[in-house]
Design goal:
It is a single chain. By secondary structure, the chain is an alpha+beta fold. It is built from four helices and nine strands; from the N terminus they run βββββαβαβαββα. The strands form two sheets. A five-stranded mixed sheet has the order 6-5-7-9-8, with helices on both faces. A four-stranded antiparallel sheet has the order 1-2-3-4, with helices on one face. α2 packs parallel to α3.
Amino acid sequence: VAALACPQLPLNLDDSAGPVGVVFAAVRGQGAQMSPLGSANFAPIRVAPPDDAARLRFVESVEAAHGDQPRQQAIARAVGITAPSLRMDSQVKYGAVARGDAALYLRLPSPKHPNYREKIWDHAAGSLIIEEAGGRVTDMHGQPLNFAADYLMHDNRGVVASSGAIHAAALAALQNSG
């Protein structure tokens, strides 16, 4: 079970002047849903279809120190994403991929903090929501995220979350980028 509230996320990302506030929910094996904040009108969501070029964009953290933005941008270009990244805070990035606003979320280790380990509370809910919406979430080596070992994700490095269709290409680009 996963729930994610995003009070500042527009209901429609392409209409930033419209209403804001979204709740995402998922149950393993039962799909993912979204509702406007304060409503119980949940509707199923799906990741962007592979042939939707308008949704071929990626999300990354607002904070440059939270990742390797130059490398993330290079990986996005390698899989055919030419639009600038959408920079967002918190797990809202997972919601954006799950409902099809973006096809890729990258959080690669920052060269300034090479020993940093992700924490489960930053990724557990969002990863299930993407998976139940039809996407895929792994670390940068293609390994499933391990939330059971410890609150620090010692078994994983970085996060790659996608609509699924470009996941293998993103992992291959990561391996080729050193």
